[in-house]
Amino acid sequence: MKNLTIQILAFILFFSAGLQAQENHKEKAVHEINLSDMDNTKQFSFLDPLLKDTKVIGLGEASHGTEEFFTIKAMLVKHLINNLDYQVLAFEMDETVAEAINQFVLHGTGDPKEKLKSYGLYNSQTLYELIDWIRESNSKKKAEDKVQVSGFDSEAYWADPFARDSLMAKNFIDKMEDKKYMLWAHNTHLVKSNTWDITHSEIKAMGNILAQKLKDQYYLLIFDTHEGTFNVFEDGALKEYPFEMDKKALAVQDLSKQYPAFFLDASDPAFSKESTYPIAGLFANWQGKPKSMPAKATSDFDGLIYILKTTASKAIE
């Protein structure tokens, strides 16, 4: 009887420890994002230990025309600047346009509102407000501590889409200094491996090149969604389209029942249930019903921010 009691107690302790380990893992791997409290950048502090050895963080997006992506990324940029000493915000943007915006954030000169309004899907009120926030923040800093804006794209690259990513990667790497960088671009440019290349084109994404060079100093946070509306650039103006993706990976389907928006670490065992994770492919022009792009957790990305339902971006007022 005594032995049976000991065995039962041992089982209870083992079971409780297992539940606690699962709960601790959940707390570490999954973090709800409160979309109604986007002024509170502290809700992103869970990223701090994950980025302690990082020099470059990629902030991806499933589309260039999604308001929630702009909003969350803007808050992340503020958190990274205020708490982790990131000092350069580099855009998938023509470098001459970005330099004009850089002069505004450094010296208050020029009109970034007009630059953004005339630059396709970067016509975003939320992005403009972020740029103005950086300018205001810089006004209180010493010259050497000011945050800069740069662009790693060029209109000259657009004529050769097959070479564009390698050219953007070279442009970025050539300009790198001893600072911490935030990259703002589409998921397709920032992925760390070539899982997406199902046609075996052997084209490397910019992020693939960066990952090979920077190793663990490059951290990629992709953004994804399931349904809603988004903007494309059509006939010289923003145009809104509805969309709904096919079923998502099991890991995301289960969590989206609990949280409308959340972060999930790529190391979460839930990702291992399926060989790839399907990222929504929402591009700058309308291409019919959107298709997904395959990606592998940890190989292609380090973290996922998922918003179940998203809305089209808001143009500059």
Automatic annotation (TrEMBL):
Record's CDD domains? Ere-like
Pfam families given for it? Erythro_esteras (PF05139)
- What range does the record give for the signal peptide? 1-21
InterPro entries with a match to the protein in the record: Emycin_Estase (IPR007815), Hydrolase/PRTase-associated (IPR052036)
Q: Name one GO biological process term.
A: response to antibiotic
* Record carries keyword Transcription regulation: no
Q: Does the keyword Transcription apply?
A: no
Q: Which UniProt keywords apply?
A: Signal
Cite the PANTHER family for this sequence.
ESTERASE, PUTATIVE (AFU_ORTHOLOGUE AFUA_1G05850)-RELATED
Question: What is the protein name for this chain?
Answer: Erythromycin esterase
